[in-house]
Task: structure prediction
Amino acid sequence: MIVVAIIGLLTVLALPSFLKSRKQSQGRRIMNDPRQMDAAVDQWAMEFCKKDGDTIDTVGAATYLKTAWKSNDVLGHAYVLNTVGTGQISIATSTKSALAGVGIDWGVY
Result:
């Protein structure tokens, strides 16, 4: 009985750190995907002579990715597509608020 109580106590103490680690991992994944897609949009825009303010062709830009184009993050929220130039892809505010408090620096996204 004492062993079960000790295991339960250790579980209660460790669970919050495991949950925070999981959220941090999700946040890093959510940050990595737009970086890759942003670089693909840059390559696509240079190759096809797009200028700032042109709309982004996700099918054309996806050819510069090693993986498929991701329109949603791991939490299911859609990435926000803007135009070619600064701030081409943004992370949804609902994603940012869902992962608030875990130490993710969203940077330009």
Notes: The chain is about 50% helix and 5% strand. The first strand starts at residue 80 and ends at 81.
